[in-house]
Structure formats: C-alpha cells, structure tokens
Design goal:
Blueprint: E1 2-5, E2 34-35, E3 48-49, E4 55-58, H1 62-69, E5 73-76, E6 86-93, E7 96-106, E8 109-112, H2 129-132, E9 133-137, E10 146-156, E11 165-168, E12 172-176, E13 186-187, E14 197-205, E15 212-222, E16 239-243, E17 255-257, E18 262-272, H3 276-279, E19 290-294, E20 319-321, H4 324-348, H5 352-357, E21 358-365, E22 368-376, E23 384-397, E24 403-419, E25 422-427, E26 433-438
Parallel strand pairs: 1-18, 5-15, 13-18
Antiparallel strand pairs: 1-3, 2-22, 4-7, 6-7, 6-9, 7-8, 8-12, 9-10, 10-12, 11-20, 14-15, 14-17, 15-16, 16-19, 17-18, 18-19, 21-22, 23-24, 24-25, 25-26
C-alpha cells in the first residue's frame, strides 16, 4: 500500500478577539462590532509524497521471486464470513515479491491498484504478465481454494505523471487466463456519501511467514470535506477519504463494500507523518486518514461486461491538485462565517434597541465579511449604555480531520452617543473611544 506524507505548516485558525485588548481594537474599529472572522487564513500545508507500493518480500532475483510466489498461501480469518470474490495478488520482480489485495468484478476480471502492478507489466497483454502475476483465493465455507493466472492488464491508471497532482485515482483492471468459479462483486455507481459505512475486505499479510495472507473484513466510515481532502465535498469526488479502521501494507486494492454488498470504492493509500502542529488541533484520538478511488468516477473496460458500460458523472473531479490548499482555505472561511452568522442572527433577536437604532450593511475587507451600521434611525438624545456583542470563535479538527468550530458568547459594556453627525462608541470602563463614524439617516425615517 502507498502512504502519503503531508507536513502541514502551523495552522492558525483562531479568530482575532476584537475586544480582548485595547491594542487590538483599532484594527477593526466599529466594523468589528459584528465581525465575521477578522483573522488570517491558515497557510497552505506543504505536500510531499512517498511511494510504498505494497507488502513486499525482498529477493535476490526474479527467479527467486517466482519460486517464492509458488509458495503463496491465503486463508480466511472467518470462513463463514469470508467474501468469496476477494483474493491475494502476487507479483514477482527482480528484487522482490509484492503482495496486494484484488477482487472480482466479473468471472474473469479483477480490480486492484495500479501501484500493485509493476510498471514493466502495464503494457497490455505483455507475455511476462502470465508468468509474474497470479491471484489466489482462499477456501471458504462454500468455496474451494483457487489460484488463477493473469492473462494481461486491461487498463491501469498512470501515477505521478503530473507533479502538481496531490491525490489521483489508483486502479487497474486485470484479465484472468480463465474464468473463476467464484461469485464476483456487484458495483454501485451511486457515489460515496458522507458518513457512509464501508466494509474493507482486505488481504492482511502475516509477518515472518513469507507470502502468506489472511482475508479479513473491517468496518470503516467515509468522511467528506476533511483537511486533506477538501475537494471530496460531494458524493462523486474521484478520490474519497475514510477512517475508523486499521490499514496496513498489503491492504491496497481492497474493495470498500456498502451494506448491500456492492463495491463503492477501492482502497489505495493512507496519510502518515502529519505535522505535530496540525495534530495539536485535533480533539480526541487521531484516526488514520485513508484514501480510495471512487468507482462511480471510473470508465470500466468492455471486457468487464455490458453492465459496466455507462457515462461517468460530470461531477467527478479526477484528481486533487496542489490548488487544494486554496480550496481548503475557502472551506475554512465558509465554516467560520456560517457559524458566526448563525450566532449573530440569534444574538440580534435579543438586542431590539441596538437593532432598531441602526440599519445594517455588509462589506468585505481582504476577503473577510464584516457587518457594520450603515445608517441611523432617529437621533440619540443622550448617551446610551449598551453591551457590545463579543465572541471568541475557534476552529479545530475532529479525529477524522474534519473541521469543527465553536463560539463562546459574551459582551463588553460600552457607551454609544451622537456628537453632531458622528456616532461615537466608547468603552464604559475607561472612556477610551473605540470608533467614530459618520452615519446618514436611514431611508424612510
């Protein structure tokens, strides 16, 4: 399986506290009265990818790899609950034997990850494929063990062709030399919704035992709009994120199955080496972020069968580029504003005098949305003691690296008075002027 390294820069997500200290007040003035996020966006995280293709056993030569491959064995953790269509894929190379997971989508077509297939074998129907790639299926309560040779690679996605791409689809279709007697999986093209329960049927290598694997089933859950996958904010993102389950080398190529027994996605890689500064923002135990290829966003080869001939949804985004930090920043800003606007709407209801005295307007400063008085209704005959709304908003991360925010409510005593055409706002504690603003009379006064 491949693991992705992402070293995130320190993420500043806490909002500016507009009334916390005298030195900070002039930064937003009266506009900060109902400020929505007077702070800088988090800096984009650097991305660095390392490739760890599969569970791998080192050998001195291709001949040694082929000999070791002939000794492969696979079994079921629970023979009564073992999916018949999931097996262990072995591929021999000059310096080692690789172990991955693969599964049947038709009696003679397997799916796995592209990174599980050696590069020199990806040319369609290479003669070497028949000697170096095999799939092994375990004995179950209803099926005998079965080993099948690979006739050829029908299609495999190209990886890392563009350095600007951060996450991309990782898949391969393999044609078997003969049809398997096992029941293949059905495939769902309904996409992957947020919080969808998925069951990962994977081959788990058995350390120290050679090319020996065990088919296991683990429960997982999909999570949209995470820190690492902001583009996965709808059901038809090409690359999805999920968690709540363990993941290890050799699990690459595992089908992610819904509760109807249909495959929604293909496990491809996991996130490791997250910067400690980012981890400090996570509330609770950090769970590994795992990525998969959304099958709804694939075009299947004709050899898989007519049931797979379809048009890929236009909503499918085929890769995540290094523009991802900007997408994440937009998501952060939207969540900040949504939460503060909700708080603002609730707070305004209890501020009848304050609301009725002014007409309110929105304006933007460097991409930050602010709310301020735009006009005044009537005049202030005498200074009015008011409580300025105050909040402390912060944005943190769930154990799945999804954003969550909270708003602490409060207030600061202040004096509002009209001086000529000016409306002056001062802190009640020391009389320091917070802001002065010329306000015209509201229309219809």
């Amino acid at each position: 399986m491949k693991f992705t390294n992402l070293h995130a820069a320190r993420l500043r997500i806490e909002l500016f506290r507009p009334w916390a200290a005298a030195s900070s007040l002039p930064l937003c003035g009266l506009a900060a009265l109902l400020l929505l996020g007077c702070s800088a966006n988090p800096p984009p995280a650097s991305t660095k990818r390392s490739h760890w293709d599969a569970a791998r056993i080192a050998t001195p030569s291709l001949e040694a790899s082929n000999l070791l491959k002939s000794r492969g064995k696979v079994s079921c953790e629970d023979p009564d609950q073992c999916p018949a269509g999931v097996g262990m894929l072995l591929s021999s190379e000059d310096d080692g034997l690789s172990m991955c997971t693969a599964f049947l989508i038709s009696p003679d077509v397997l799916m796995t990850n592209s990174h599980c297939v050696p590069e020199d074998l990806k040319a369609p129907y290479s003669a070497a494929q028949r000697k170096r790639l095999i799939a092994m299926f375990p004995k179950t309560s209803h099926e005998h063990a079965e080993t099948v040779n690979i006739e050829g690679v029908l299609e495999a996605s190209t990886l890392d062709a563009n350095p600007e791409i951060y996450l991309e689809q990782d898949y391969a279709f393999l044609l078997l030399k003969k049809r398997s007697s096992r029941t293949p999986f059905g495939v769902s093209f309904d996409g992957v919704p947020d919080n969808l329960t998925l069951f990962s049927a994977r081959m788990q290598p058995q350390p120290g035992k050679g090319p020996v694997g065990e088919i296991q089933v683990r429960r997982c859950m999909a999570h949209q709009a995470t820190y690492f996958t902001p583009s996965y904010n709808h059901n038809f993102a090409a690359v999805i994120s999920f968690s709540d389950c363990s993941v290890d080398h050799g699990n690459s190529g595992s089908p992610l199955i819904d509760d109807q027994g249909k495959v929604r996605a293909l496990l491809q890689e996991a996130q490791v080496d997250v910067n400690p500064n980012l981890l400090s923002l996570v509330d609770g135990k950090v769970l590994p972020a795992i990525y998969g290829t959304n099958l709804a966003c694939l075009n299947f080869p004709q050899e898989a069968g007519s049931q797979f001939i379809r048009t890929r949804p236009e909503a499918c985004q085929l890769e995540m580029t290094r523009k991802m930090p900007q997408e994440r920043d937009a998501l952060v800003r939207a969540q900040k504003e949504a939460n503060l606007r909700a708080w603002l709407a609730a707070s305004m209801k209890s501020m009848d005098f304050f609301v009725s005295l002014f007409g309110w307007e929105n304006f933007d400063v460097k991409g930050i949305t602010l709310v301020r008085p735009g006009c005044i209704r009537g005049t202030l005959t005498q200074p009015a003691a008011i409580t300025l709304p105050l909040w402390d908003a912060s944005l943190r991360l769930t154990p799945y690296f999804q954003f969550k925010s909270s708003v602490a409510r409060g207030g600061v005593p202040a004096i509002l008075e009209q001086v000529g055409n000016h409306v002056k706002l001062s802190r009640a504690a020391d009389g320091e002027v917070i802001s002065e603003q010329d306000l015209k009379a509201c229309e219809g006064n």
